[in-house]
Amino acid sequence: MTFADYYIWLKAAHVAAALLFVGGVVATSLTLALLPTMPEDSAPFVMGMRRYDRWVTVPAIIMVWLFGTGLAVSGAWFGQGWLSAKLGFVVLLSGLHGVQSGRLRRMEAGASPAMSRSLPFVLFAAIAIAVLAVAKP
Amino acid sequence: MKNEIEINISLLGQLKLASIIEAATLALLVCVAVPLKHLWDWPIGVRAMGPVHGLAFIFYGWALLQTVGAGIWQRRHIVLLAASAFVPFAGLLASRYIRRRIDALDRDCSAT
Asked: Angle B55-B57-B63 (CA atoms, 0-180°, nearest 5)?
């Protein structure tokens, strides 16, 4: 297998993981934004979201970072402007996911939902990451 | 109440593990890889340990923010725990502090 073949598969795995990760963060943002408006008995829904976060979004974020670091090292891209900007957005999205994941756990334990308005930022970050990764300006 | 304590203990256990990994990779980077690069002109150590420590740092930050989202810490604790990621060996002190917090929650859990 040549380096080009290896690169394509690494990139495919990274993009697949990124799609699942962003999908999970969007779903959690929507959940946290809409929960205060939902009926009292939303515990099964929160538990389902929490399970999805644990088994899909968390493994996806781990894969995003592992494959992404592998790609950046193999392409010697660390230090380039587009990657630094992209890394900034990914760090912010990862941090936001950490906070959201903690909030979901707290709600699963019975805490009342707190209003969250993170969805516009998540959508903007996802678009910015896609543009920076593809165009590499 | 007991459920909340158990969830907090699980999150803190993860944070403790992350702080130990972060402290170990930072110590290896600063105390081994960087001197090897500058004193013996051997940059491969930094090239390998840099990304590894970067991943460990991200894991620690993510685990810390999970505990912040769960409402476990007061603001000054968050600042201290975040600062510990930037100082070599401070992560080991942070892990001991987190261990004490887990023990306190364990006692609360036994009492309820």
From this structure: 100
**Tally of structural domains, chain A:** 1
* Residue B11 touches chain A, beta carbons under 8 Å: yes
Tokens of A126: 């996802």
ipTM for the assembly: 0.85
Task: Calculate how close chain B gets to A90, using CA atoms only, in Å.
Answer: 10
Q: Is B63 on the interface with A (CB under 8 A)?
A: yes
Nearest CA-CA distance, residue B9 and chain A, Å: 12
Quick check: A133 and A87 in contact, CB under 8 A? no
Q: What is the pTM of this model?
A: 0.88
Nearest by CB: A99 against B54, B55, B68: B68
Q: Which domain holds residue A51?
A: 3-135
A121 min Cα distance to partner chain B (Å): 17
The model's pLDDT over A25-77, given as tens digits with 9 standing for 90+, comes to: 999 999 888 888 877 777 888 889 999 999 999 999 999 999 999 899 888 88
Domain extent, residue B28, equals 2-111
What gap in Å lies between CA A105 and CA B68, rounded to an integer?
A: 11
Total residues belonging to chain A = 137
